[in-house]
């Protein structure tokens, strides 16, 4: 007999994707469970880059301040040339914050720290991860999924979300294809180490024998005493390559005065670039690495997974079948685009291209990714067409507050510019309404005064207009005078 279901969503996998989804469901009051087959939390640094758009999501979830406390900007590369000379380079130029983009630069945070901070935020909301528990079987039926857990427990849930990684057992059980390629000859050793003999101000890189190739990298991880060690390995690496003595020999070959004092998490990375052709099968959804795996070049995998979760959370909470179909329609094209960028960067690495370490493509920051062509975009746009339904809702300071402050939370938001008498739907816990006006203009009670005009600039407003912002902070639609009164608050 199955136990009576007391939850709506079962999340398999407590990596960044699963944890983000759990946090979003917890703040929405959606009953859920999150299980993780590993008996211990993740211990490695692998996915260490938190992109600007992901930082905006973390701010909405109430945890960005902790990420910024423990993280830092990507350091400058100090390249140690043969003969003792050095040169410096940046993977990407640092950008200054703007009113519309408050977090323009990638933030370095070891993946284990990301998991720790997200788990802490989940605990604050009353949730917890069930470690050492795996989904071992499931059967779909009308209205839900019957699931068997490794503990022997058998439960029912309305929805099952597979966030169980690139080797997802749930994806395999569904029979969903995972198209792409695996490069067996392109392997990388990654390890978290502690050492003496190097400063922590820069990312130390020793080139290989071929031009623009890598022999060894030692990157200081902010908020820790660790460095992340990276080094290419032979086509058929020996298990002993992970031993502390072998790692010390790698270091001795390039910098004899550096001594490893501790070796922690180690991993052999094999280039694997794949994605699914479906994100949904009935009541089962795929997210994160279960749906797409990337080269680490460009720092896209972890970030794309977090954004999968942020797109899916509010749709699961609504429980509307047609709305849930839009998860695949919106996220699959984004994953395909991001995977293409990661693959191009990977090829540059493999070919030892001169610009292999550069990360200047603006798409990597994921701020320009859009759902304009998705089923929820109604084709409306801002005054000059700079913003379209489906685009990211920009930030802007407004007197003593910010647009992101107005958007923060699980609700939809109507931003009403310069239309104090607009006939609007009633405000509710699910729909917040904020009037934004220029200084000295007629205003509704409690209106936000855009003292310096930043919000009007960011939202391309030259005449009265209203923007409906989705719970995941993308634009659902734009209405202009005289259509403001006719704007629907639905999707």
Structure notes:
An 8-stranded mixed beta sheet has the order 6-5-14-15-16-13-17-20. Strands 8-2-1-12-19-18 form a 6-stranded mixed beta sheet. Strands 25-24-23-26-27 form a 5-stranded mixed beta sheet, with no helix packed on it. The radius of gyration is 24 Å and the shape is globular. The protein has 10 helices and 27 strands. It is of the alpha/beta class and 491 residues long. Helix 1 packs parallel to helix 4 (111-124) and helix 1 packs parallel to helix 7 (301-318). Strand 26 and strand 27 (475-480) form a beta hairpin.
Number of helical runs? Answer: 10
> What is the SS-derived class?
alpha/beta
Mean pLDDT: 90
Spatial arrangement of strands, main beta sheet: 6-5-14-15-16-13-17-20
Could you list the spans in which at least 5 consecutive residues all have pLDDT below 50?
Answer: 348-353, 355-359
Helical fraction equals 10-25%
Strand segment count: 27
Radius of gyration, CA atoms, in whole angstroms: 24 Å
Largest sheet: 8 strands, mixed
Distance between the termini: 40 Å
Q: Percent of residues in beta strands?
A: 25-35%
* Outline: globular
């Amino acid at each position: 007999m199955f136990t009576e279901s007391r939850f709506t969503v079962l999340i398999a996998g407590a990596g960044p994707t699963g944890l983000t989804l759990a946090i979003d469901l917890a703040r929405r009051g959606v009953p859920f469970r999150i299980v993780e087959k590993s008996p211990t939390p993740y211990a490695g640094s692998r996915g260490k880059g938190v992109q600007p758009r992901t930082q905006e999501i973390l701010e909405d979830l109430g945890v960005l301040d902790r990420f910024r406390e423990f993280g830092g900007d990507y350091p400058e590369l100090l390249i140690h040339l043969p003969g003792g000379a050095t040169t410096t380079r940046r993977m990407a130029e640092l950008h200054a914050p703007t009113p519309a983009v408050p977090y323009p630069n990638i933030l370095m945070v070891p993946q284990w720290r990301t998991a720790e901070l997200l788990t802490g935020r989940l605990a604050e909301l009353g949730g917890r991860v069930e470690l050492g528990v795996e989904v071992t079987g499931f059967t779909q039926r009308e209205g839900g999924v019957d699931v068997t857990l490794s503990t022997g427990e058998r439960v029912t849930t309305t929805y099952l979300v597979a966030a169980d990684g690139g080797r997802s057992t749930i994806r395999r059980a569904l029979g969903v294809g995972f198209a792409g390629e695996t490069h067996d000859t392109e392997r990388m050793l990654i390890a978290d180490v502690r050492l003496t003999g190097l400063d922590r101000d820069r990312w130390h890189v020793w080139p290989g024998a071929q031009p623009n190739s890598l022999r060894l990298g030692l990157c200081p991880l902010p908020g820790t005493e660790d460095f992340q060690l990276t080094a290419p390995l032979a086509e058929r690496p020996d298990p002993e390559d992970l031993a502390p003595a072998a790692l010390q020999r790698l270091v001795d070959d390039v910098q004899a005065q550096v001594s490893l004092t501790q070796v922690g998490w180690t991993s052999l990375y094999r280039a694997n670039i794949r994605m699914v052709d479906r994100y949904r099968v009935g009541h089962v959804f795929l997210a994160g690495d279960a749906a797409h795996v990337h080269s680490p070049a460009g720092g896209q995998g972890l970030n794309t997974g977090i954004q999968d979760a942020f797109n899916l959370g509010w749709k699961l909470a609504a429980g509307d079948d047609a709305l849930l179909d839009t998860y695949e329609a919106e996220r699959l094209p984004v994953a395909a685009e991001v995977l293409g960028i990661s693959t191009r960067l990977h090829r540059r690495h493999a070919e030892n291209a001169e610009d292999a370490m550069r990360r200047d493509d603006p798409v990597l920051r994921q701020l320009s990714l859009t759902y304009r062509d998705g089923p929820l975009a109604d084709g409306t746009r801002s005054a000059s067409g700079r913003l379209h339904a489906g685009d990211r809702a920009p930030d802007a300071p407004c007197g003593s507050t910010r647009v992101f402050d107005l958007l923060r939370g699980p609700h939809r938001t109507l931003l009403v510019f310069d239309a104090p008498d607009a006939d609007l739907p009633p405000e509710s816990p699910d729909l917040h309404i904020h009037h934004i006006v220029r200084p000295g203009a007629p205003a509704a009670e409690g209106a936000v005064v855009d003292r310096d005009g930043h919000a009007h600039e960011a939202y391309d407003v030259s005449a009265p207009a209203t923007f409906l912002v989705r719970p995941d902070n993308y634009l659902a639609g734009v209405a202009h005078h005289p259509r403001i009164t006719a704007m629907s608050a639905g999707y």
